[in-house]
Design brief:
The chain is an alpha/beta fold and about 325 residues long. The protein has twelve helices and 13 strands. The chain has a seven-stranded parallel beta sheet, sandwiched between helices. Bound molecules: NADP nicotinamide-adenine-dinucleotide phosphate and glyoxylic acid.
Length: about 325
Amino acid sequence: MTKPLVYVCRHIPECGLELLRRSADVRIHDGQLPPTRDELLAGVGGTDAILSLLSDRIDLEVLEAAGPNLKVISNFAVGYNNIDLRAASERGVRVGNTPDVLTDATADLAITLLFAVARKVREASAAVLDGSWRTWEPTGWQGLELAGKTLGIIGMGRIGSQVAQRLHHGWQMPVIYTARNDKSELAASSKAQRVDLEELLSRSDVISVHVPLTGGTRHLLGARELAQMRSHAILINTARGEVIDQDALIAALENRQIFGAGLDVCTPESLPTDSALLKLDNCLVLPHIGSATYPARNAMATRAAENVLAGIAGQPLPYEVFAS
Ligand code: NAP
Ligand code: GLV
């Protein structure tokens, strides 16, 4: 009997591939870079499942290129803004993601960015590397202290609430947050108070962004919102680059309107090396490594494979997402 065929858009941790190979034939896109559009369209042809990455745009054209056997798209990520959910659902194709298992890793990275920006780690490390560090500096590389400062969370979901808990309990930070729907359960452990966006912008010493990228959150923070932030405030984004208007952020950082920014995500990814963002000494950019720990990536691979196998079997996915 022929086995179902799965297209995997890049090499993922072996535990996920092994799980797939037990019940399916696996066609993997080789190489460090995502498949080009042409490679993707050709690669998905005749498949029963696509295991995609956040760097792969899965839209109607891809669904059509896959053909009538396609039953499931399993994203190796919790975010799924790269997938046209409506087009998938109209064709009866289920979509899955990998929630929870990367929450701790991503929350930890948001905090890593926060302390690195507050303590000017980027500039201090650059001085060591370029030889401009000569001696102990009584007035050099002075940064901010965070204990007791107000934390503003935009997107009090799984990751946002973990960032809040860690900083509330570890650094005694009062927490405020914005939400569309009630989040009192997630907010309880950090005693967080719900406020509107205007109040959050003007009261927070630190703002950490954790909303998914949707039509409603694209450029949620633009020039107007950045202008409402405090002059010593730090902005952290581990969500998606497009949630912040990057040109407006560059201007705000250049003008020292805010203290600094720590970005695990930006627009585009990767960022050209001549980007103005990389010239700023008050901005630290990382290459989207929020979930890049061994346990998180292994667990994501397993979850993504479990979604594929359930979808191929015509069953609801263990981690299924739906068009809203
Ligand atoms: P989640 O649990 O769904 O949390 C997102 C929260 O944002 C939800 O509680 C949602 O609540 C809220 N939200 C949506 N729109 C909002 C708005 N306009 N204003 C305020 N809140 C809003 O998702 P998660 O697991 O925490 O992940 C969050 C995002 O982080 C992902 O979508 C992904 O883009 C990003 N991420 C990045 C990395 C990385 O490597 N840097 C790793 C993991 C995740 P309601 O829908 O009830 O409003
Ligand atoms: C990473 O950005 C994810 O959404 O999992």
